[in-house]
């Protein structure tokens, strides 16, 4: 039922088992597969060690359940949930190294960590490399260590306990923080600060159209993308050339309103028939036309009203 997979001498459940366990996601099959999973756990003559990592708000922690005892620690807030999952396994190995038993099965719900352990030759994560070294060391000492993926949040007792203690962990532990985690945290912090600054720019024309700083897709044709950007920021040749030429602000000859992108695209009654033709309505908001997904008829409309080459 178990399949040898790596040169480390670690093992993962065979693909068939993982396929079966994936079916646990179907609610009416959960009870059946919970029993099935427990049968596996009971029938494998090893010491079961459940591990879990968690990250929520400002709390990062991991938990390990072994021999009905629980162990948990908090980690730096910079750590990712992936690192927390890896730290849980690393800590489990530390417990194993001082245990009287010889055969262990480490259960983790982190498929990504287990898959990376399976291909440790490609890994760069420092804790995973440490796990690999420790498994190798313990194997040479005569330990038999098996890794097994377990689905999470489906009532498997060991996994539920590990999940609980990881989320409620309160004791710090000295540990290294992977550079990738720090880089991601710094990036997240900078983006948050940028968003906070942008949130205050309520008088900026672009803010109304794009309140979030997340990246928007780029138009495949560069010329259209440039025009779209000018419409979004409200600065076009036609509406702003007066700043360079020294002329007065251009006014709409029909409405006597200042010529703005908003006036031309959504307000000026001169273009209502074109709006009806291309957008099937005359009641429009700039977001409808130049938002994240521009209206498919936008450029046809601009050409029709003679504004396309004034942008
Ligand atoms: Zn007008």
TrEMBL record:
Q: What is this protein called?
A: RNase H type-1 domain-containing protein
Enumerate the GO terms in the molecular function aspect. nucleic acid binding; RNA-DNA hybrid ribonuclease activity
- Record InterPro entries: RNaseH-like_sf (IPR012337), RNaseH_domain (IPR002156), RNaseH_sf (IPR036397)
What PROSITE patterns does this protein's entry cite? RNASE_H_1 (PS50879)
Look up and give the organism this protein is from: Araneus ventricosus (Orbweaver spider)
Q: Which lineage?
A: Eukaryota, Metazoa, Ecdysozoa, Arthropoda, Chelicerata
Where is the RNase H type-1 domain positioned along the sequence? 43-171
* Keywords annotated in UniProt: Membrane, Transmembrane, Transmembrane helix
Entry keyword annotation includes Membrane: yes
Q: Does the keyword Heme apply?
A: no
Transmembrane residues, as ranges? 6-24, 31-51, 71-93
